[in-house]
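MODEL INPUT / OUTPUT PAIR
PAIR INDEX: 1
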Amino acid sequence: MGKTVAFLLILAFLATGCAGVSEAKPSFVEASGTIEATEVKVASEIGGRVLEVAVKEGDEVNAGAILIRLDDSEARQKVAEAEAALKEAKANLEKAEKGATPEELRLAEASLGQALARRDAAKLAWDDALASLKALQELEMDIEKARAELVAAEGEIQKAEVQLRLAQIMRDRYQGDGSAQGKTLYTSYSHQAEAAEWALEAAKAKKEAAEQALKDLEGKKSNPYAYLLKAYQAEGEYRQAEAYLLIAQAELDKVKSGARTEEIELARAALEQAEAALEMARYFLAKHTIYAPISGFVSECSVKVGESIQPGKPLVTIASLEEVELTLYIPLSKLGFVHLGQEVEVRVDAYPGEVFKGKIVYISPEAEFIPRSVQTKEERVTQVFALRVKLPNPEHKLKPGMYVDAIILKGGKP
């Protein structure tokens, strides 16, 4: 998720001595640029309504710090239900191990019936959710079909309008004709005009239906995460219903014949199902709180309290400050003075007298022209080589966008 984003690349390079005038080689190379940082865009894995935004742009955060909280009331209810199911499963296992009385038969049968109905309903909901998810793959064909139906409806409207206009013209032509033939034609064209009006209204209704169908299909396509989330939730509810059913079946079997080894194992399996359902519910609840994956400062925060968010949409961008980068450009004449691992001293106006040290980690294998945004008129025909420098920044003094002066010290290769 992280990638290096250059806020600005600026260059000014200066070498001691002038080419063609002196053969004296400088002991260092000077260049300038701006600090860059690795950015991580943080998104939510689920959709929901934002309950709290705990950070703002410019804040420094530690890895694991809370960034955003979503409304988790429904998820908490699911956890409470799963905890209750687990508690019941534990009690049933203990009871199965101790044995049960015949007086509980009626209640056990009723509980089994309810659990079976709940499981079947949950399975149906899960199947529907999976079918909706699968239907997303067929949306493109449905959308193309809906578009074709819309075009056809528009054609029918045009055809009906032409027929209506022709019928009206002919009707009006014979409107004042008192002859028998004129009256007959007037009546005939009046009926044709009326029929054309009905056809036009029907075509318009068909167009509206086609437009709505197309809108609905495109709406489904625009938010596939909602169908995926619905499928996950439906599966969780089905697993929980299965756990209830196993519990009820174990209880009934135990009441009928007393606790046997296989019944105890069944109750133990139901307990494991309930534990898995609780784990899934807690996992989903945890996704309602979004944490910082790295330490750094918040360079962008694009979400507000009360806003409804979609899964996968970047909400907060964090720039890592533990180690920053600097891109410099040097001319071909200075390329022989630099090598990988070479030390670079960096100074910044914000901290006069302080030197930050880094090392060259990359040298471009190809020459390029100076970026247009930083070149002068004289430099537009100058080809240079890009260097990338990494600088440790444990105190977070260096910030992205800071303009710095760098000195590349001449020395032997390591």
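PAIR INDEX: 2
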Amino acid sequence: MDQLPEKLKIFDEKDKEVIESAGPYVEDSSLKLTCVVSGGKPMPRIRWWKEDKIIAQLDPVEDETRLSLLELRIPSLKRDHFEAVYSCTADNTPIVPPLRVNVQIQLYLRPLSVEILEREQPLSVGQETDIACKAVGSRPPATITWWLGVKKMVMNTPQTGQVMTHNQRAGVIAGSAHLALQGVSRDQAGQYVCVASNVEGDGRSLPVSLQVIYKPICKSTMTAIVGVAVNEAARVSCEVDAFPLPKNFQWTLNNTLGTTELDTEKFTIEKSGRSILTYIPTSNMVYGSLACRATNLAGQQIEPCRYTLLPAVKPDPPANCSTLNLTDDSAEVKCIAGYDGGLQTTYFVEAWEADELIANVSTILPVWKLQDLGSGKALQLVFYATNARGRSDITTLRIHTLSRLALHTDAKNNYMVIDTNWTLGIVAGALCTLAAVAVITTLARRRQRPLENNVPLQTMKACKGAKHSSNHPPIQDDKNPDVVPLRKDFNSTRDFELPHEPPPYGIALSNIQPVGASKSVHSLHDRANTLHTLNTPGSDGQSISTLTEDRRSLTSGTLSRRREVVTTRTTVLTNARESCV
């Protein structure tokens, strides 16, 4: 039994079903649409149509899936594909109308043409004008921007068909297709361009010149000083800005004699809109103030250009001189110019080292750069100005060029600070380490010193006294003897020489002559032996005994002493005995 096709759908490149319209696509991009038909027995015939023209066809083919597909491919979309309608049909019998689905192609199109619709030209200052920009062939509609020369006239957020205020105070109202100028000024004259932009690109119009008529104004707003000597000619130039260019000029002189209009024979008018006056003062009474006014189609100049005419004199010296930059070999200096005497002035600087001229530079402005001065030089700079009337007085300034070592030090100042800090830290650490080692070494030596070297001074004195007391019996103390008696076999006549090393604790033996000395024995004074017993409170009954004797004997130039052993008990080492020989 025959069956009609059930469904017909169209899908794009991303396998997304297309309903009514496909895109938008960009110009020159490709397009692929797939027409899918399901069902139908026998298999349907599929066709792609553009308007009433068949552009693709798929004849019936038996397939178990019961699906039929036909692709439409366009390799490069052009402007004529914009909003074109394509149809896909499916049928398997001439009796029943075929299934049909229509698709419209959407494209983005760049503007074909952009132009400014010119208005009446020229305009006078204060008038109003409206400039229209026309963009053709833009899809979607283009956004219009206006340019004056290279400067964009920034507007608020554009909205198609509406007028936005760009700068209403200045009399400019900009819209998507219109530019309205209210109260036109001379600053608004120039080359205007409108640019139409959309996602596809930009279109620019040809520039349109907007001319604004305005009265002449001076190009320089400052009063110029002109110096001229009596019976000498001075050329004074009057330059103005105007549209159109001025055709007439008027010169006047104002002094103590009043205001006088100068004859036209004394000045000329150039095509560029400039007038040059040639003036020759015949006496000191004809100096004063000159004024120049120009006239064009817009009217006469309101504020004249002014000049002060003075007798020409030599210039004043430069003042307030100072250095701008100083190196090891160069210097930049600047001064304030004085009165130039009404004439063209040249400014000089000379660099002197003692009586030697190092540099001499001249400029038309009091700013100089001196080079090849030398490193570490003490220089005197001499400033002066000259003109046709003579040379000014001088102004001096002393400078010192940097030495290369100082410059190198300044350039590496930060690094030197860091290196110095590290050096100080290392030195301090080394000193602390050495001090600690010295303290530890001293303590260790004191602990290892023999016990006899630590005997107190009182004990050493006792030993000294004991050695000289062989003829006196020791004081006996049964409970706590301090002196040990001599042995029986002790030879009291044995002589002993003094040791070569000095006694401990700085004990000095005075009046001792070396062997072979001839000093008389009568030069020595005998002193009585004295035994001192010192009872110290809190010493648990212990006593310190000191035996002192200054008797010395000298036999044949040799010092002789009897050997005795003395035992003492000290407070430093309690419950310990010390002996000395």
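PAIR 2 NOTE: The CA atoms of residues 443 and 520 lie 47 Å apart.
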